[in-house]
Design brief:
43% of the residues lie in helices and 17% in strands. By secondary structure, it is of the alpha/beta class. The chain has a single domain, classed as Aldolase class I (TIM Barrel). It has an eight-stranded parallel sheet. α6 crosses α8 and α8 packs across α9. The radius of gyration is 18 Å and the shape is globular. The N terminus is likely disordered.
Length: 289
């Protein structure tokens, strides 16, 4: 993270605008080494021959394979494409590192993993992970040197009853307790918040409108600014995840408070993923003109 330093006041530092961020959550859609290798080869070709220097320098691309394939992907994938895990630790407590089946932050770092996806609706709502557990995972990830893709989002009934922003605030506030604030040296440059309106996710779902995505992400940035600090609000990247694809990405990419995407099905095809990279990079070029 580069800093722009005010020559007249060395205490007044402001982080430079971070790269746009694009993560592809593969979930468990690919379950064999052959399918994993095919997609990795396609991504390598995309990165080496199709994407332009402006695109690769403007957008940080990250893929999140199933745990069992993390090492295979990191060994074969272009080094400039980051690899993220989909989870760490399924429980906490004094002996969590010894729990059968647990994947530790230290193990992930040792494989060359850079990011970890936490708080996804699959785990919050399908597997019962609560805010306290997710916050603990955020702390453990940051302590190990991982960067966190923190997913927060409201269910359909919460939106219908006017509880969307309250739900998001509660989820973000819980995780924020595990992130060093501006007065503690800062840690929000290691956080990518992914707004996931759960009601807009899935086959045939209606995506959240761009204006609503901007309204929500602006609310989240204001919350960080008020409750953590200006430096944190400028450092954190606020992304959108909710049925994003190469066809609708442009309508979100230029929004002031949308710093990228976390995609699902579109991330399983290198061509589609490359198109979204291009869209994000073009939105940056447009703002710089």
């Amino acid at each position: 993270m580069f800093l722009i330093i005010d020559a007249n006041d060395n205490t007044n530092t402001k982080p430079s605008k971070p790269k746009k961020f694009l993560a592809a959550n593969w979930k468990n859609a690919l379950q064999t080494p052959a399918t994993i290798d095919t997609l990795v080869d396609d991504l390598n070709h995309l990165y080496s021959t199709t994407l332009t220097p402006h695109q690769t320098s403007t957008v940080q691309l990250c893929v999140n394979p199933p745990h069992i394939f993390l090492d295979r992907v990191r060994q074969r994938l272009h080094p400039s494409i980051a690899v993220g895990a989909q989870n760490l630790y399924d429980s906490t407590g004094p002996n969590n590192s010894a729990n059968t089946g647990s994947v530790t932050p230290t193990a992930l770092v040792g494989l060359g993993v850079t990011y970890v996806l936490l708080g996804h609706s699959d785990r919050r709502n399908g597997l019962g992970e609560d805010d306290r557990l997710i916050a603990d995972k955020v702390r453990l990830a940051l302590e190990a040197g991982l960067e966190v893709i923190l997913t927060i989002g409201e269910l359909g009934w919460q939106r219908r009853f006017g509880l969307a922003l309250r739900t998001l605030r509660k989820q973000l506030a819980a995780a924020a307790k595990s992130i060093p604030g501006d007065d503690e040296g800062g840690g929000w440059d290691k956080i990518i918040v992914a707004y996931e309106p759960v009601w807009s996710v899935g086959e045939g779902a209606t995506p959240c409108s761009p204006s609503e995505a901007q309204r929500v992400n602006a609310f989240l940035r204001r919350w960080v600014r008020k409750n953590v600090g200006e430096r944190a609000a400028e450092s954190v990247r606020l992304t959108y995840t909710g049925s994003v694809n190469e066809g609708n990405a442009e309508s979100y990419a230029g929004l002031e408070d949308v710093d990228g995407f976390v995609v699902g099905r579109a991330g399983l095809d290198a061509r589609r993923l490359g198109a979204i990279v291009g869209t994000l990079a073009a939105s940056v070029a447009g703002k710089e003109q």
